[in-house]
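Extended Data, panel c. Modelled sequence:
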Amino acid sequence: MAFLIKRGKYYYVNFYSEDLGKKNVRKSLGTRHKDVAQKMVTELEKLESLGKINPFSKGFNPKKVLQRNTSNETTDCNTVSESIELFYKSKNHLSPATIGAYQRALDHFVELNELSDVHPTNVLSYHFENVIFKKSITSATRHYYFRHFRSWWKFLLKKNIVEKDYFPEIKKDLPRIRENTRPKMISEEELGILFKKFDDELARKKDLPEFDPNLVQHWFKPIVALYFFGGLRKHEAAYDPELSYSGLKGENLIYESEELSYISLPPTKGRKERLIPIINELKKELEVYLKVRAKISPSDYVFIYTGGNTKGQPVRGMRVYREFKRYCKEAGIPTSRTLHGMRHQAVTTWIEKGFHTAEASYMAGHSSQKVTEKYTHLTVKRLKDKMKALS
């Protein structure tokens, strides 16, 4: 029998056998990601049940065992289509929307080049270039294809299905592009205007004879505050039935001396656990909401509907998005502002306030610090302040 444990920052597999006199052995899996570690343990249990490994033998190394087993599996990958299916299986922790983006890009690649039944080793650089550099597509689309093709090809390289990496050379010919995130980012002043519009509308509704207090969207301000001040992704706070990690729960609220102090998140899209300190502005909105929400058990969703046909159900991300856009329009805030733009704003603010990129990366749950470093071009204000200090 095998089970997963965590020691420090890394995960270990623990094998236990009563048949061998309650023998116990613990081996490092060499990963900090819980979802990756769990898959490794599942595969090791399978191999043990088939009698292919003996975890209690001297020198047993689970990482080497899994590497050998993976290499053996790839020998059955004889076509491009099979290699793509293998790639999708490795990405099953991602959202359906992300998987869909890979499918659209790779389906187009295979169809245009007629590669469905071709062995992956027969795929050449010009096959990728046929799509990436075809006429009448924008620079953003070229980068879209490049990213998705490269991700698939890196997977094949890692599995030793193919040997040559074409993408460093292809990248040299890509047009430069920088996504303009500023129009998506809402300012703190605009956030105040947005919340005032919400409060004004609620006050107006309370005077109506048909007013139902159970239909008040008490969740709106705290969930938006989580995006703006906590840098959460849309479905880390709101719910999506397609995502196993979605929806903030009672267990994610961490108290110190009976005071709300942190948001604790397990591995989500970025596959990293993280603790996000709750600043006063966010704490205020959450505490007001929690008084209305009443007692929450660890397994309860924090944000729920309190009335109507969906009473008791978790608030969905699409509902938050629609209400956010509606209030922006009514408050005269540019409709280019987005929920994800508030995450951009949070990370940018952290860096501007002096957080190191490693600290901002940890709080944001980015898969790599390189992702966080992209935000440094937005911190012109911080550079200006430092330059003034030299005078």
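The chain has three domains: 2-75, 77-172, 182-387. This feature is highlighted in the accompanying rendering.
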